Inverse folding.
């Protein structure tokens, strides 16, 4: 067994790009989101109570080392308000909202991704400023949490690097 020091990763005091995972239960989704978050330059992930343990073996495996590169903070809605101050909170929505490529994601933003089965909780809905839509011209009701997060992260990175 090898033990390595684990330095504390902290959220920036003036965040520019964050994500809230609201009661994400699937370890594969959580880990995949972590991996993509690092790839696309996310500054931190907040996760609500009731989410899967981000250090469970399946999350760590699917995260592929992302845990060592991004701050992970469990936070309740009141703490989320404080930690995301200065950002626009965009709720990923299935049926209505601004198409993600029409929203200005080059400014400080926080994305809210909801539970796989029940969507975003009412507490998080109450915090959001705007709804974001991922238009799907095909005949599919929704995407899973990781796919939705990945698309939004890509779009934010595209707008910021254009």
């Amino acid at each position: 067994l090898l033990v390595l020091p684990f330095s504390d990763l902290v959220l920036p005091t003036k965040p520019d790009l964050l994500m809230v995972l609201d009661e994400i239960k699937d370890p594969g989704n959580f880990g995949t989101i972590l991996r993509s978050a690092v790839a696309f330059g996310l500054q931190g992930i907040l996760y609500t109570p009731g989410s899967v343990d981000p250090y469970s073996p399946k999350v760590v495996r699917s995260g592929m080392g992302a845990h060592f590169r991004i701050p992970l903070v469990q936070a309740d809605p009141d703490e989320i308000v404080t930690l995301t101050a200065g950002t626009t909170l965009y709720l990923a929505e299935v049926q209505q909202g601004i198409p993600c490529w029409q929203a200005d994601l080059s400014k400080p933003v926080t994305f809210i991704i909801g539970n796989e089965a029940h969507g975003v909780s009412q507490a998080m809905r109450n915090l959001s400023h705007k709804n974001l839509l991922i238009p799907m011209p095909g005949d599919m009701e929704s995407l899973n949490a990781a796919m939705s997060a990945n698309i939004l992260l890509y779009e934010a990175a595209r707008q910021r690097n254009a």
